[in-house]
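Structure in, sequence out. Go:
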């Protein structure tokens, strides 16, 4: 078993379709140090910026004679702000929580607080990695340069039925959470099934429950645990009321005998490859990892399985403020 640090390469997140477009606004962030419980002494606008893309207003009319389970889902009038969080400084950043973000304050164009409530369902905590993409252009040396992509964000809230029509929002404040950690490590274990747990610093244990090769198909399953802590998958959703896990498993990948990741390449050794992997939580504060790799080169040798693990992550509150946000024509009052 080997272990080393690595600034993890990030998985893609889905793009959002913009439903009602306006002109792009300017990036905005609240100019203050990150708040409790993990203030670390830097200004938000130095590291992050939010750009709104569109605003959508939605209204629904419910049949008053039918109740059923309507109260669980009713949100007769809602406003949705769609935009992107740009990462200006990715140093030491592991990922972000931008799913179901917290809304802090909504003020109309007259300076009055808007009567609003959260959407009528339980919020989720779901971390997303940093996402890098390779553009078509290349640098002067002919090598592609990965470009850090922004996070897509959708922020929705219900508007009180008695709220008068809103022409614009003079102030809209919300917050995301940046995820930092003590360390990000890579732990390699042999591609060999065993009943034994392999000790991996710092105190983590990994067991390979399946490692098979049939022709060109490589399949594996592993388990990751810590006797004194909680281990979770990095991007699995959880309740914000739950404490953050002690360890987050980001991904796994297969390595050849030289320690190089097996991916689709254009060389003669691995002419092509099809890859799939998953990391998921269990009910025992452990994580189950698995995947399969189909290669089209018989000489491909799988030697080990690498686990990318975030050690002792913590959240830093990142508040954003958007001013003079136009709102499309709303309901008549």
């Amino acid at each position: 078993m080997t272990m080393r640090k690595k600034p993890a390469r990030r998985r893609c997140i889905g793009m959002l379709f913009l439903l009602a477009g306006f002109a792009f606004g300017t990036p905005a962030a609240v100019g203050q140090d990150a708040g409790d419980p993990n203030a670390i002494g830097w200004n938000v606008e130095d590291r992050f910026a939010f750009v709104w893309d569109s605003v959508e207003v939605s209204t629904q009319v419910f049949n008053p004679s039918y109740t059923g389970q309507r109260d669980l889902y009713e949100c007769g009038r809602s406003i949705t702000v769609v935009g992107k969080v740009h990462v200006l400084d990715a140093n030491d950043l592991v990922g972000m929580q931008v799913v179901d973000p917290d809304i802090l304050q909504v003020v109309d164009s007259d300076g009055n607080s808007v009567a609003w409530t959260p959407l009528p369902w339980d919020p989720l905590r779901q971390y997303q990695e940093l996402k890098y993409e390779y553009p078509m252009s290349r640098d002067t040396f002919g090598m592609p340069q990965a470009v850090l992509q922004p996070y897509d964000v959708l922020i929705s809230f219900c508007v009180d039925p008695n709220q008068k029509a809103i022409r614009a929002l003079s102030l809209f404040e919300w917050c995301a959470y940046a995820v930092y950690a003590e360390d990000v490590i890579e732990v390699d274990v042999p591609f060999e099934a065993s009943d034994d747990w392999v000790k991996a610093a710092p105190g983590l244990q990994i067991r390979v429950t399946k490692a098979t090769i049939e022709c060109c198909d490589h399949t594996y399953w592993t388990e990751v645990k810590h006797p004194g802590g909680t281990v979770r998958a990095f991007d699995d959703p959880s309740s914000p009321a739950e404490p953050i896990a002690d360890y987050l498993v980001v991904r796994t990948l297969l390595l050849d005998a030289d320690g190089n990741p097996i991916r689709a390449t254009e060389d003669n050794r691995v002419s092509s490859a099809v890859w799939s992997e998953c990391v998921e939580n269990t009910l025992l504060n452990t994580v189950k990892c698995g995947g399969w790799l189909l290669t089209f080169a018989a000489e491909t040798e799988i030697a080990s399985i690498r686990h990318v693990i975030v050690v002792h992550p913590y959240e830093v509150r990142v508040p954003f403020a958007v001013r003079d946000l136009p709102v499309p024509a709303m309901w008549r009052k």
